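User: Working on a comparison across species. This one is Bacterial regulatory proteins, tetR family from Palleronia marisminoris. Can you predict its structure so I can line it up against the others?
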Amino acid sequence: MERKSIDAGKSGRKPSGAAVIRPELTTTLFKALFEEWAETGYAAISLERVAARAGAGKAAIYRRWPSKVEFACDAIQVVCLGLPDLGDCCSLRKELDAFLRKTRVVLRHPMIRKIILDAAAERDRTPELSAVLDAVVAARRRFGNGMLDRAIARNELQPDLDRELALDLLVSSIYMRMILRRKNVSIAELDKQAVVIESAIKAC
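Assistant: Here's the predicted structure for Bacterial regulatory proteins, tetR family from Palleronia marisminoris:
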């Protein structure tokens, strides 16, 4: 996401007196930000260190974002709002299996584990960060609602199910195991979770 992209024109030459915002450097800056965040926590992030990690000057950050919080919010939106399209897997169980496997891949990353916990702790202190995290959660729940809609259309679920509870159930067990308890989850355990979650959702 480029908040202040500058068009260099078809020739590719820099406009006179202006710096060109390079997308590849923006991506590198996002990666450096997340590395710093995982090591220090959000409150202690140093933009000087982030720039140094990216092999750039601090001005490269301020050409793109006026503050640390806007930098962090853009990074979260770019990385977290893109959701894989599972499509119709023909049954709720298969969709749950696919969803849990993709979630497991994300939560196994040690950097992501640290950032998730720190971001949750930071929500009450940083309203702007809280707003973008709310947007990420809302996007995840829309994705989950798609799964529920397809299951209802296949007559696997009742139309009047408690959706809020069902959506909570989709991620609660894997989040508890991998983030709060810091345990790995095997594929066999994921399969068991899918069975239990399906049964629980059907009881909603």
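For your comparison, note: The two ends are 39 Å apart (CA to CA).

User: Helpful, thanks.
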